[in-house]
Amino acid sequence: MTEAAVRLADIGGCAAVAPLLSARGLRFSAGGQTLIRDLDLHFSNHGISVVMGPNGAGKSVLLRLLHGVLKADAGEVHYAGRVLDEETRRREQAMVFQRPVLLRRSVEANINYVLKLHGKADAGRCQALLEQVGLAAKLRQPARALSGGEQQRLAFARALAAEPRLLFLDEPTANLDPNASAMLEDLMLGAAADGIKLICVSHDAGQARRLATEVVFIHRGEVLAQQSADAFFDRPADPRIEDYLSGRLVL
Amino acid sequence: MQDFGSAFTLAFQLVLNADADLIEIILLSLKVSLTAVLLSALIGLPLGALLATARFPGRQFCLLLVNALMGLPPVVVGLMVYLMLSNAGPLGWLRLLYSPAAMIIAQTILITPIIAALTAQVISDYEREYRELFRSMGLGLRQRILTLLFDARYSLMTVSLAGFGRAVAEVGAVMIVGGNIDHLTRVMTTSIALETSKGDLALALALGVVLMSLALLVNALVMTTRLTAKRMAHD
Ligand SMILES: Nc1ncnc2c1ncn2[C@@H]1O[C@H](COP(=O)(O)OP(=O)(O)OP(=O)(O)O)[C@@H](O)[C@H]1O
Ligand SMILES: [Mg+2]
After folding, report:
1. Which residues contact B231 (CB under 8 A, 6 or more apart)?
2. Is residue A9 pLDDT above 70, yes or no?
3. Which residues of A148-174 are buried (b: 16+ CB within 10 A; e: fewer)?
4. Closest CA to B166 of B23, B28, B34
5. How many helices (H) and strands (E) does chain B have?
6. Which chain A positions have a beta carbon within 8 Å of B151's beta carbon?
7. How far is it, in rounded angstroms, from Cα B62 to Cα A161?
8. Is B24 helix (H, G, I), strand (E, B) or coil?
9. Which pTM does this prediction carry?
10. Shortest CB distance from A145 goes to which of B143, B152, B232?
């Protein structure tokens, strides 16, 4: 068995199912530094994969590479068994960036933009999405005048509007108060229950415990661990992870 | 030659009484320059957005060209259009020389590069910010350009106003292709030039005052647009 297959087996019987997303030999350099080095990763087609790792580990770069908005120097990303293309990304994937980029329009128009793109323009749907993230009262406000946390929630709702099969989230709750954070976690669990695959970067071990079916730990552009959540928190694959989680080690 | 004091008094009387000749000249100026800006915006906005958004061989050269054309001297544009439209010219059969249409053509040629170049500058900033979002959404070139044009609408309004300011204030191009014919192609700038050389300072001054007020108004509009954009956090 390949190393990747062993890891998949570790998640619990998913090895037989073809992965939804896989990266092979992914490499990316910028600014004279290798940020992602020969990385292999496979994601099953269900559940929430939480990506953890210290600041600057390359989590955001990795997510961009997996989503295909950043071109790798080497290696390939396969989605549903095929090389990912524009049209498939448009139809099946969405991403909430670490720093959300909102259109210079109203809150409502940001959602409607995506709904229209997918041929699902519908006032009721827009309203429902905004209610889910607690922004229904701000419908007509300019999106960019929202607070940081509100912008993040809007970006999340906008990603849901695309009804993706695979949703990338880069620290979606980083700027959120505990209530909003809990609200978003519920939405993520709901999305996963609806069959959406989530790949989510988080620094919050508590959040990872609550959400993750598996955890991927990245360090200096390499995968130190890809384990089921239980296994990860019980006996992490690398001794450095335990120290990192307990705050004893700054990687 | 009138003395300065009486010229000023007369000028303000002309403005305050809404003198018929004065109004006619102002209206023609506005008609010519607003039409030219409209046409230039129709060409320059999409062109600038395309240059900022699309990646194709020769793009840098096009940007260079558009930027260079920004500095076209109005008299040179006037001369070129004159050569095209004169009886001997390739478009002479249109019989447009010395008509407002010729003036509109000249001003459109003059300010289209300005609008296109400024639009390219504005849009490329927005494009850099939106690039990953657009990729994530899998947008095609057309959708990207339309979205950028809409999202940059406040900045592009000020770009268009700058174009209008340049058009309404230029004299060289409209003088050559319009000919400054009374009741037909006489606009503010050409009238000022003519009346000053004739020594009729009152009408020249009155038009000068109007022209300056117009410049002020344009600047006020630019500022209001900027403030609105800021208030909406759209800047
Ligand atoms: N385009 C780029 N050019 C040069 N360096 C880059 C570029 N993009 C990212 N980096 C560098 O790559 C490293 C990883 O960046 P990345 O944003 O992926 O970190 P991260 O794991 O998401 O960190 P954080 O937890 O702070 O979000 C950083 O040191 C960053 O400076
Ligand atoms: Mg990051």
Report:
1. none
2. no
3. ebbbbbbbbbbbbbbbbbbbbbbbbbb
4. B34
5. 10, 0
6. 103-105
7. 38
8. helix
9. 0.90
10. B232
Shortest CB distance from A104 goes to which of B135, B137, B234? B234
The string of pLDDT tens digits covering residues A93-150 is 999 999 999 999 999 999 999 999 999 888 899 999 999 999 999 999 999 999 999 9
Torsion angle defined by CA atoms of residues B146, B151, B154 and B157, in that order, rounded to the nearest 10 degrees: -10
Contact predicate A75/A26, CB 8 Å: yes
| Edge-to-edge strand ranges of the sheet holding A214-219 | A93-96, A166-170, A197-201, A48-52, A214-219, A222-228
CA distance to A32, A64, A94, A172, B131, per residue, from A207 (Å): 34, 22, 21, 11, 30
- Contact criterion met (CB below 8 Å) for A106 and A141: yes
User: What count of other Cβ atoms lies within 10 Å of the Cβ of residue A25?
Assistant: 12
Strands A166-170 vs A93-96: parallel, antiparallel or unpaired: parallel
Name the residue among A192, A159, A163 with its Cα closest to residue A50. A192
Contacts of A182 by beta carbon, 8 Å cutoff, 6+ apart = none
A window 111-150, beta carbon within 8 A of B = 113-114, 117, 142, 144-145
Backbone angles phi, psi at A33, to 5 degrees: -120, 145
Cα A237 from chain centroid?
22
Per-residue H/E/C for B48-77 = HHHHHHCCCCCHHHHHHHHHHHCCCCHHHH
Kindly state the DSSP code that residue B94 receives in the 8-state scheme. Answer: G
Residue B185 CA to residue B85 CA, distance in Å, equals 15
A180 and A132 Cβ atoms separated by less than 8 Å: no
CA atoms of A194 and A173, how far apart (whole Å): 20
pLDDT (mean) for B6-31: 90
Q: Are A198 and A167 contacting, i.e. CB atoms less than 8 angstroms apart?
A: yes
**For residue A219, how far is its CA from the centre of ligand 1 (angstroms)?**
12
Q: Can you list the domains of chain B with their CATH numbers?
A: 4-234 (1.10.3720.10)
Q: Residue A16 pLDDT > 60, yes or no?
A: no
For the packed helices B153-169 and B20-53, what is the interaxial angle rounded to 10 degrees?
130
The verdict on ipTM greater than 0.85 is yes
How far apart CA A54 and CA A5 sit, in angstroms, is 26
